[in-house]
Give the backbone structure.
Amino acid sequence: MGPISTRLLALESRRGWATVMVFAVLALVVVPVLNLAVPPGSAFHLPTFWVATLGKYLAFAILALSLDLIWGYAGILSLGHGAFFGLGGYAMGMYMMRQIGERGVYGNPELPDFMVFLNWDTLPWYWFGFDQFWFAALMVLAVPGLLAFVFGWFAFRSRITGVYFSIISQAMVFAFMLAFFRNEMGFGGNNGLTDFKDILGFDLSRDTTKVGLYIATAASLLLVYFVCRAVVTSKMGRLLIAVRDAESRVRFLGYSVTNAKLFVFTLSAMLAGLAGALYVPQVGIINPGEFAPAKSIEIAIWVAVGGRGTLFGAILGAFAVNGARTYFTGAAPEIWLFFLGALFILVTLAMPRGIVGVYQSIRSGQFKDAIGRRLQRVDA
């Protein structure tokens, strides 16, 4: 799948900046106002359900950006990115479980309900510190980042690339899924972590809290976009693109390909962990299903549909695919997976540069020329 030019991907034009500003106004101002300030009986009122749904999409957009950073610019296709997303989600879930205290079913101020049910006597050592938000926020970034650093160090030093890296990354996320399903791991087993009550003292059932989480997620998406943009437009970004296009030549020129890949892979994992932490309070649960290999593959589909190596395309793809999921799982749930598979085939064969690539081809006239050439071949 050929990436679009670096200039387009960075969205450096005035039109690109205008798009970012419009998104910021819509996400941070218009949506909250339509929910909180417009009366429920009005046709312009936005229900809290849709605010929470949009917040979930925003978290997925951060996750898509994290994958696009390594796949679109460094050529590293990770099919195990759900592991970093899930670890970030579990870190935030552990904090919110510690906040339940005596309000749990068993009324134990120290142990979560699932530990009481399993006859655990004491809190595991790796749960200590999660009663503090600052510690949980640190772990949201540190745990996925450390895992990515160790995993990437062994993989990149061994010069594992291409489909081989994709396979071992998928094996990694599958191993996490199997491990977290076990009750003795201390993470709730099959049921995961749920029944959260509040976050930072704010009741999760209140509409204002849900809007606050939505705003925090939208602001985080903007911040992550600018971080990714700063990376891909820097000297490091140009080096990553060179590694993607001609890794052997970059090594011959004396650059450390291993260090460049390790840096961007670790950063990408930390961003995925942040996405998981923002996702969990809005959906109210985190379980081993988030580590399912199929979910990591779906992240790659979001990026491919939107436009790999474009940043903005990753956001667009996350919204487009998940919007389609919301529609089809409600209207015709039995055909959703068929639709997803057909969408991936369509993008691979007819839209190799994704939605953003098609748009740019139309603007430049290349799309019209391509259609004309195909019509001429048909006439011949």
Remarks:
- The beta strands are 193-194, 198-199, 202-203, 285-286.
- The radius of gyration is 22 Å.
- The mean pLDDT is 88.
- The CA atoms of residues 177 and 372 lie 49 Å apart.
